[in-house]
Protein: Porphobilinogen deaminase
Amino acid sequence: MKIRIGTRGSKLALWQAYHISDLLSKGGIDSEIVTIETKGDKILDVTISKIGSKGVFTEEIEEQLLSGQIDIAVHSAKDMQSELPQDFELIAFTTREKVNDVIVSRNQSLSIEDESKPFKLGTSSTRRLATLKRHYPHIETVPIRGNLQRRISKMDEGQCDALLLAYAGVHRMEYDDLIVEHLSLDKFIPPVGQGSVAIEVAKNLDAEKKAIVRKLTNDPDTEKRLLSERAFLKKLQGGCSVPVFALANLDGNNLSIVGGVTSLDGQVQIKENASGNIENAESIGLELAEKVINAGGKELLAEIKSQL
Ligand SMILES: NCc1[nH]cc(CCC(=O)O)c1CC(=O)O
Structure:
């Protein structure tokens, strides 16, 4: 058996694909990596929230899953919509990396906490922008898009002094030396799924292939955390372009999740939590969503979406 792995062509995406290929190979399964260019890779001059269509990074890949040109597709879990088109499913989540965001800069003396030394921080994520406005209003932000390497060259050209990024991507691309600060999970709660690699398949994929890929790549603890977070996101109809955040953690058989939504200007934040037995991961996520909705989350989200 040979598994054809579809992926976007960025270095981070390729790292993820090779990671899956390695896990398969340790289990004695051969694989081949197929790179696929998506709309999201071609349009670089506008923020993702303005491209508008769902699945800008997934559509072309899903076409190849459906036609059988590839068997599995590898994505950053956090980039996956909470509701996939009906012919597709996620069958595995790899062991999660540290979930926090970091500040990356050539200037080791920067600190986001030091209000006397403001600096220009590059980010285009609405969640990060809203969080910055709420907790660090002295920080000036600059929109920066593109893959990690591109963002770092934009920083080096002087467009900004520092970048706000997920630790997972920075670490995988081996830019650890540029990390000047790890952001606290109390203030910067990550988006759903940050730090894990998800495997997507067409539902009609051969059952034996599905089972073998899942067995060799899925981390059950990560899966429970992500199922809970993704159930929350789906119920709230969040999506990756709005400042919705959630993080589930495990302590033995207990799963606890914190999550919510922040207004774009940072003035309003709804943040709730829920917990229970790990077996009820998804219903705990739904319970969290209900709490956020009861606290006015739907109205806040509608207002945010009208402003994007
Ligand atoms: N939005 C792009 C993206 N998708 C996944 C990661 C990082 C790796 C991960 O969280 O799995 C990044 C970069 C970033 O947000 O800094």
